[in-house]
């Protein structure tokens, strides 16, 4: 018996059932997917809008637009909203473009409205913000203009200084140096000296002013340097030959000429980095100090000499620097200090106090009240001729007039320092006064400082510095002999 016929085979009915179930699932899933995609697009659009607002809050546009809002456009939009038409820039503004204030992202906070999802600004708050922005612009322009004027004044001052130095150098080279013997003490030259010697001729003028009373030659420098090198080699091999070679050169001098010199060179103008080991002037400074120690073994090397030699090296050749160095240290004041002649040093301090009381009586009394004696601050100034205590350019100007006026100017400069800081010092105690005077500020106004020095009168009871010093030296000698000094 045949089975009844079927419209479709079994496999076909299975496929049809699968097709129906797939259609049924597709009818359910597709609408869900469309709804989800639509929701995602809406969310992305909302996020993009929020991002736009966020960027707008900081005066920028979204990165996807590939366009960044110009600050000048923001300025124009603000002026349009404020009801003020933007004016074309004037010729002055074109010249001074760097003075035009361009609002940055922080100022754009004021220029833009709040995002749509935040409540709008009240009218008074918006007005307040506009006023604050205008004040910010005005203040920024004032600051920029003030800074530009300051830079312009500095440039003009520098140009005037360079022109003055150039003219002075011509005068020194063409008029003064060729006729040194007849012109160096003239009023015109003394005035130029006070204004500062041009760096290009400073070394030559110093050499002529210091002189060469010791008649030192370049050959003598070579001999002393060779002797110093021989002693350095002997010391490096153990020092046995050195002890047997010359009994007239004490061990203390040998130590000073070698170990202390090396130590001091590393501490000489450390900020310049030219005198330290490996620097371009290290060997030159080492040679001059070693040669001098062999030239004057009775003096040896004393701390502070390296600063004097270094200043001379910056302005003279090695041999000429040695000649000037040796003659400079042979002056009475320098010899008294570097040989540590306590009696003569006290005499110099006493002479200084005479003029201190004469010129600055109020400060002198304050120092006496606090027991601040001159040796506390003067020793370092005199030992290094102010090259360690003052800025180098200012110290060179002190050296200029010192070469003209001699030791008197060293003590006059000290009184100028006290005059410059008089108002501050009178309010200090012992500790703070000593700290200030032993470590002067790194930056001192040169013209104001020299104006203070100019007010110092080196005359007391119709006696000049040399007369006062001679009288005190006479009193000191009579005191040593046992007789009471006469009253002056």
TrEMBL record:
Which residue stretches does the UniProt record annotate as biased composition, category Basic and acidic residues? Answer: 66-83
Q: SUPFAM superfamilies from the xrefs?
A: Ypt/Rab-GAP domain of gyp1p
Q: Name one GO molecular function term.
A: GTPase activator activity
Q: Which UniProt keywords apply?
A: Coiled coil
What residue ranges carry the coiled-coil annotation? 123-165
- Per the UniProt entry, what are the Gene Ontology biological process annotations, in alphabetical order? vesicle-mediated transport
- Note down the stretches annotated as region Disordered: 66-98
- GO cellular component terms, A-Z: cytoplasmic vesicle; vacuole
Fetch the SMART domains from UniProt.
TBC (SM00164)
InterPro entries associated with the record: Rab-GAP-TBC_dom, Rab-GAP_TBC_sf, Rab_GAP_TBC_domain
Q: Where is the Rab-GAP TBC domain?
A: 196-406
This protein is called what?
TBC1 domain family member 14
Organism expressing this protein natively: Rousettus aegyptiacus (Egyptian fruit bat)
The beginning of the lineage is: Eukaryota, Metazoa, Chordata, Craniata, Vertebrata
């Amino acid at each position: 018996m045949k089975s009844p016929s079927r419209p479709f085979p079994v496999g076909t009915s299975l496929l049809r059932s699968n097709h129906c179930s797939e259609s049924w699932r597709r009818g359910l899933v597709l609408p869900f997917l469309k709804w989800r995609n639509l929701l995602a697009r809406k969310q992305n659009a909302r996020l993009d809008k929020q991002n736009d607002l966020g960027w707008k809050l900081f005066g920028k546009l979204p990165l996807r637009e590939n366009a960044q809002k110009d600050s000048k456009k923001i300025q124009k939009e603000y002026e349009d909203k404020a009801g003020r038409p933007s004016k074309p820039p004037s010729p002055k503004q074109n010249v001074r473009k760097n003075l035009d204030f361009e609002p940055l992202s922080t100022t754009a906070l004021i220029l833009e409205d709040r995002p749509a999802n935040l409540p709008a600004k009240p009218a008074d708050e918006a007005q307040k913000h506009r006023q604050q922005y205008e004040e910010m612009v005005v203040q920024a322009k004032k600051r920029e203009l003030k800074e530009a004027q300051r830079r312009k004044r500095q440039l003009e001052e520098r140009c005037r200084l360079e022109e003055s130095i150039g003219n002075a150098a011509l005068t020194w080279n063409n008029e003064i140096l060729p006729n040194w013997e007849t012109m160096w003490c003239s009023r015109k030259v003394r005035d130029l000296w006070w204004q500062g010697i041009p760096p290009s001729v400073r070394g030559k003028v110093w050499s002529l002013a210091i002189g060469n009373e010791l008649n030192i030659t370049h050959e003598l420098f070579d001999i002393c340097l060779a002797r110093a090198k021989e002693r350095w080699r002997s010391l490096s091999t153990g020092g046995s030959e050195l002890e047997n070679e010359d009994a007239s050169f004490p061990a203390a001098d040998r130590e000073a000429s070698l170990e202390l010199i090396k130590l001091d060179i590393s501490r000489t103008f450390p900020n310049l980095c030219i005198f330290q080991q490996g620097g371009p002037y290290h060997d030159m400074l080492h040679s001059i100090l070693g040669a001098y120690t062999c030239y004057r073994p009775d003096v040896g090397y004393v701390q502070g000499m390296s600063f004097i030699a270094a200043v001379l090296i910056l302005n003279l050749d090695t041999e000429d620097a040695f000649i000037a160095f040796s003659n400079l240290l042979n002056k009475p004041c320098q010899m008294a200090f570097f040989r540590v002649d306590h009696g003569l040093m006290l005499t110099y301090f006493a002479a200084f106090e005479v003029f201190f009381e004469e010129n600055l009586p109020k400060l002198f009394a304050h120092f006496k009240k606090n027991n601040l004696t001159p040796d506390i601050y003067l020793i370092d100034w005199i030992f290094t001729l102010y090259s360690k205590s003052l800025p180098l350019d200012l110290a060179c100007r002190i050296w200029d007039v010192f070469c003209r006026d001699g030791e008197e100017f060293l003590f006059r400069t000290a009184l100028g320092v006290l005059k410059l800081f008089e108002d501050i010092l009178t309010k200090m105690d012992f500790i703070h006064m000593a700290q200030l005077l032993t470590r002067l500020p790194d930056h001192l106004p040169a013209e104001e400082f020299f104006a203070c020095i100019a007010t110092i009168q080196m005359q007391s009871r119709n006696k000049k510095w040399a007369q006062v010093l001679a009288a005190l030296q006479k009193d000191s000698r009579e005191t040593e002999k046992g007789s009471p000094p006469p009253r002056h």
